[in-house]
Specification:
The model has no long low-confidence stretch (mean pLDDT 96). The chain is built from twelve helices and 23 strands. The longest helix has 14 residues. Strand 6 and strand 7 form a beta hairpin. The protein has two domains: 242 residues, FAD/NAD(P)-binding domain (3-Layer(bba) Sandwich), CATH 3.50.50.60; 134 residues, Elongation Factor Tu (Ef-tu), domain 3. The chain has 393 residues and is α+β, with helices and mostly antiparallel strands. The strands form six sheets. The chain has a seven-stranded antiparallel β-sheet. Strands 8-3-2-12-22 form a five-stranded parallel β-sheet, sandwiched between helices. Bound molecules: dihydroflavine-adenine dinucleotide. Dihydroflavine-adenine dinucleotide binds next to helix 1, strand 3, helix 2 and helix 12. Dihydroflavine-adenine dinucleotide (FDA) binds next to helix 1, strand 3, helix 2 and helix 12.
């Protein structure tokens, strides 16, 4: 193909953020080209939420996001809210339900969300092209120029919406960061987030518990999450751990309260009520048996409760409340639901997502250093940041 096609905006990456951005700008009358190297759009949406897409969370607020600048997400999140996305879903007749903790899922399939976004881009007459690679993008005279396969294009606006490197087997790369750096933006070091943690050393005993899950409160840094933890053959997972992993840094501990609902002094009281019971039996009422056994071994309190001093039991209670694990790593980008870090918000306008140093360049979605909690928050950021840029292009 020869010739160069002119557009008002090029959106690179047809994931959640790119689709929303392109649809929004297209419906404002902008001529938008949406490009994706994958053979189909919205692949992560299709596998999300176990195939049902946890598309938003009704408790969305800036405090549920990590970023070097915790204020950055406020403006976009306030201007495109979960209620706005729910209204869109409702207009398309997609049935949904709240599963738990404000997490909204499709009753049917994540495919409905992709079909909805494609319908919205069609309404905006967005030109979508997939399955080629972008060989070059350059900027001069207030114009971006590039080649996709052998299709050449120009536009005064370019949106980086190519996500982060989590799940590389789906084609995820650090492309966004390379491009951003090339145009003078800084990148906060990317790291796997919402990711299982691995255990070694003295904690290795717990790997025997692979498959055991229990409700806990998990803490990393200043964050605490009350949800289920799951032991795996490599270490720790489950929602409480995935959440904590986003706040965890190498060398730091993760503490777990195995009995977040237990009243202070419960173990001494258990001794008074059932002096012949073992600690494993006392714990077994509240925890899975295999976990109760391992904890009892680690606490080195064999035999009957009646044979233990109140002091020892009080100490054991404290340890069960603040059990300290020392993860030796994470399962990495291969297993991370999202990437923390990314294109630094310091170089972007929080109103429009446009680069302060290069008018016409935008960055949205997971590519940016804004990372949500587990439970629909990451898609809400993709919708909100995509909408903010799409309103401005
Ligand atoms: P996203 O990764 O969706 O899209 C980027 C696009 O850019 C892709 O289509 C990719 O092919 C394309 N691309 C990459 N490099 C390119 C290049 N060089 N040229 C052209 N195109 C390129 N979140 C949530 O809120 N609720 C949930 O239920 C889940 N569930 C979930 C499950 C699993 C298994 C994963 C891995 C992740 C989730 N997430 C989630 C997170 C969520 O999927 C993620 O935050 C968003 O998809 C981010 O949207 P983006 O559009 O920013 O990137």
């Amino acid at each position: 193909m020869t010739g160069i096609a002119d557009y008002d905006a090029i959106v690179l990456g047809a994931g959640a953020a790119g689709l929303m951005c392109a649809a929004t700008a297209g419906q404002r009358g902008r001529r938008v080209l949406l490009l994706d190297q994958a053979d189909q759009v919205g692949k992560k949406i299709l596998i999300s939420g176990g195939g049902r897409c946890n598309f938003t969370n009704i408790h969305t607020g800036p405090e549920r996001y990590l970023s070097a600048n915790p204020h950055f997400a406020k403006s976009a999140l306030a201007r495109y809210t979960p209620a706005d996305f729910i209204a869109l879903v409702d207009r398309h007749g997609i049935a949904w339900h709240e599963k738990t903790l404000g997490q909204l899922f499709c009753d049917g399939s994540a495919r409905q969300i992709v079909a909805m976004l494609l319908a919205e881009t069609a309404k905006g007459k967005v030109d979508i092209r997939c399955g080629q690679s972008l060989s070059e993008v350059e900027h001069s005279d207030a114009t971006f120029r590039g080649t996709f396969g052998n299709f050449r294009f120009t536009a005064p606006n370019l949106v980086i919406a190519t996500g982060g490197p989590s799940i590389p087997r789906m084609g995820a790369t650090g492309f966004a960061y390379d491009l951003a750096r090339r145009f003078g933006l800084k990148v906060v070091e990317p790291r796997p987030a919402l990711v299982p943690l691995t255990l070694g050393g003295a904690d290795v005993l717990f790997r025997e518990l692979s498959g055991v899950a229990t409700p806990v409160e998990a803490r990393a840094g200043k964050a605490a999450f009350r949800e289920a933890a799951l032991f795996t053959h490599r270490g720790l997972s489950g929602p409480a751990i995935l959440q904590a992993s986003s706040y965890w840094r190498h060398g730091e501990p993760v503490t777990i309260d195995f009995l977040p609902d237990a009243a202070p002094g419960w173990l001494v009281e258990a001794k008074r009520a059932r002096p012949r019971a073992t600690l494993a039996a006392a714990l077994g009422g509240a925890l899975p048996d295999r976990l109760a056994q391992v904890l009892t071994e680690r606490l080195a309190l064999p035999g009957e409760l009646g044979a233990q001093s109140d002091r020892k039991l009080a100490d054991a209670e404290v340890r069960l409340k603040r059990w300290t694990f020392h993860p030796n790593g994470t399962e990495g980008f291969a297993k991370a639901e999202v990437t923390a870090g990314g294109i630094s918000t310091a170089g972007l306008s929080s109103q429009t997502m446009m680069a302060k140093s290069l008018p016409g360049l935008y960055a949205i979605g997971e590519a940016v250093d804004v990372t949500g909690w587990l439970g629909g928050y990451n898609f809400q950021w993709a919708w909100a940041s995509g909408y903010a840029a799409g309103q401005t292009l």
